[in-house]
From TrEMBL:
Family under the similarity heading: Belongs to the acyl-CoA dehydrogenase family.
Record protein name field: 3-methylmercaptopropionyl-CoA dehydrogenase
Catalytic activity: 3-(methylsulfanyl)propanoyl-CoA + oxidized [electron-transfer flavoprotein] + H(+) = 3-(methylsulfanyl)acryloyl-CoA + reduced [electron-transfer flavoprotein]
Top-rank lineage group of the source organism: Bacteria
Gene Ontology CC terms, in alphabetical order: plasma membrane
Classification lineage: Bacteria, Pseudomonadati, Myxococcota, Polyangia, Polyangiales
Length: 619
């Protein structure tokens, strides 16, 4: 790869699509101007969108291939990040892009979470590996802000939100993997109230780097005498360099990088093995004041991290799609299918070939639908902040939708990101398999999204095991009611009626399957639940996305009626036509999967349970 290619930004985003979601479909401006977003209006949001995208393209984007090619390395026990990462980190915090939704108490801008998700999409899409360092820092700081003592908030938050120090989350251990309850990392209380920490954590993203002067680790550990399993875990603040009471740095805290992983993708992100207390000199302090609260505390960061993974997925998939679209418009190959017998027919852009158009529309519908789902979740989160203490019923409804949608956002977005990137490569043909274009890196980077922050099966089990029954099922019922109301209001739509019928049938399939899952719990057919969980999460995600795409299409078709004729309205007309066709495609080609999946689950096939382990292969 040439140096010019290495330093070229290839990231793309559709700002018209972003604005449509923010202001036409989800009407964020209805929440702006009210506490806690009184200082924000439509103009301010629009300005941030424009400038954040420019920053992502100018600063983060050119380093994406650099990070992939060079990767991270260890020198003298210190992780060294790829060239340019440190400078980009400094520019990120100087420009204030990580403080958009941080409270003014900690020198933030106090903006809506919905706007933060848009900024994060740009940063993730431009350079997923680089943005993992500040992303995890933000999440760790949020945990300390929510659960920490006043001293901990004063000591850590401005330095973390401001980029002086970074943060991590340390859960996974070699012998435990996703079974966090099997953690062996120990915490022994000392006379001064601090704890001696000893143990090994693996797969720690951003576990060490040369971007900041300190790394603040949030470490799950078990205090002496604590009960087994997740209920006995506590969460500790364990800085790499000890922190004095005035915020100045002391000496090393016996946190040692044992190794970094060499991975399939996100090579610019250091994935570390961390050894705590090899010399019995690693000190940590409890987050807050109560022991055995580690998992509830960590879940706050994990939920934020899961939304961030969903953002990573859609951001990379979106850029892969837009790069494939650009290539398909430019590359000429073959003649039109209408002239297939004419050897002298002119070559046409590959976008004229039916199968390429199918792939492009498939990618478009999935990317735009997933983004709509994420913006919907974020908008619910902002509504919670606006209604809390003023309208308890509205706040509870919106919080319930956030809780319900998190596993859908994380799992479906990350699964589809890999598939969209795969389709983008196919659209390029052989060129897509080379490093001359960014889509092969997008595909490699995207694969891990379905694995970390809780594998997607864990998300599916969270959905069917916890979220469906949360609040006595009220959150699920509210979601299903919202879809049903949309169907009722639009079932006779002059353009979308057939698609709305598909949505209604998918709604019935999801509602019926949810009841089937409940019956399996009640009838003791528990092994059937994990067999079906992933399929159900996919069904429910596609129902949600089909609904949001059709909702967007209704809005788009209405907006088209008011457009001026001729060239004046041509660009908007083309955009709205795209919204209509994405919805029609998804309804005709993806929504029927929900009906078929419900039928398959109804057969209660147990062949995967019945096959003996030795029968899988005789090698």
């Amino acid at each position: 790869m040439s140096n010019a290619q290495t330093h070229q930004n290839r990231y793309k985003a559709d700002l018209r699509e972003i604005r449509f979601l923010l202001f036409e479909q989800f009407r964020l401006d209805e929440l702006l101007g009210s506490a806690p977003y009184d200082a924000w209006g439509r103009d301010e949001v629009g300005m941030v969108v424009d400038e954040a995208y420019k920053f992502a393209c100018d600063v983060f984007g050119p380093l994406n291939a650099v990070g992939d090619r060079v990767g991270c390395r260890i020198e003298g026990g210190q992780v060294k990040t790829p060239p340019g990462f440190k400078e980009a980190w400094d520019k990120l915090y100087e420009a204030g892009w990580k403080s958009v939704s941080v409270s003014p108490t900690y020198d933030g801008q106090g903006g809506p979470f919905t706007l933060y998700t848009v900024v994060e999409e740009f940063l993730c899409g431009a350079n997923a590996a680089l943005n993992m360092y500040p992303g995890l820092t933000y999440g760790a700081a949020e945990v300390i802000e929510h659960f920490g003592t006043p001293r901990q908030r004063d000591l850590f938050l401005k330095r973390m939100y401001g980029g002086q120090w970074s943060g991590t989350m340390c859960l996974t251990e070699p012998q435990a993997g996703s079974d966090v309850g099997s953690s062996r990392t120990s915490a022994v209380k000392q006379k001064d109230g601090k704890y001696l920490i000893r143990g090994t954590k693996i797969f720690i993203s951003g576990g060490d780097q040369d971007l900041t002067e300190n790394v603040v680790h949030l470490v799950l550990a078990r205090v002496e005498g604590a009960p087994p399993g997740t209920k006995g875990l506590s969460l500790f603040v364990v800085p790499k360099i000890r922190v004095n009471d005035d915020g100045s740095l002391g000496g090393p805290n016996d946190v040692v990088v044992g190794n970094i992983e060499h991975k399939m993708g996100i090579n610019g992100s250091s994935t570390c093995v961390l050894n705590f207390g090899e010399s019995d000199a690693c000190l940590g302090e409890l987050v807050g004041t109560v022991e055995h609260q580690g998992m509830p505390q960590m879940f706050r960061m994990m939920n934020g991290a899961r939304i961030s993974v969903g953002l990573q997925g859609v951001s990379v998939a979106s850029s892969a799609y837009l790069n494939a679209l650009e290539y398909a418009k430019d590359r000429k190959q073959g003649s039109s299918i209408l002239q297939w017998k004419d050897a002298t027919a002119p070559r046409v852009p590959v976008i004229d070939h039916p199968d390429v158009r199918r792939m492009l529309l498939d990618m478009k519908s999935r990317v735009e639908g997933i983004r709509a789902l994420i913006i919907k979740l974020a908008r619910h989160q902002d509504a919670v902040a606006v209604y809390q203490g003023k309208d308890d019923r509205a706040a509870a409804y919106n919080q319930g939708q956030v809780d319900l949608l998190v596993p859908l956002v994380k799992a479906y977005s990350s699964d589809q990101a890999f598939r969209v990137c795969e389709t983008a490569i196919q659209t390029f043909g052989g060129a897509g398999y080379t490093k001359d274009y960014p889509v092969e890196q997008y595909c490699r980077d995207a694969k891990v999204f379905s694995i970390y922050e809780g594998t997607n099966h864990i998300q599916a089990m969270d959905l069917v095991g916890r979220k469906l029954g949360q609040g006595g099922g009220v959150n699920l019922q509210a979601f299903l009611n919202d879809v049903a109301e949309f169907v009722k209001a639009n079932e006779k739509h002059p353009v979308l009626a057939a698609s709305i019928k598909e949505l209604r049938e998918a709604h019935e399939a999801v509602a019926g399957t949810a009841m089937r899952l409940l019956s399996w719990f009640q009838l003791g057919k528990m092994p059937m639940v994990p067999l079906a969980a992933n399929r159900f999460l996919e069904m429910m995600s596609e129902l949600a996305i089909g609904w949001l795409l059709l909702d967007g299409a209704v809005i788009a078709l209405k907006a088209m009626e008011g457009l001026p004729a001729g060239d004046a309205g041509a660009k908007d007309r083309a955009f709205y036509e795209g919204k209509k066709h994405a919805a029609l495609y998804f309804a005709a080609n993806v929504l029927p999967h929900a009906k078929f999946s419900a039928e398959i689950l109804g057969r209660e096939d147990s062949s995967a349970l019945d096959i003996p382990a030795d029968a899988f292969a005789t090698v």
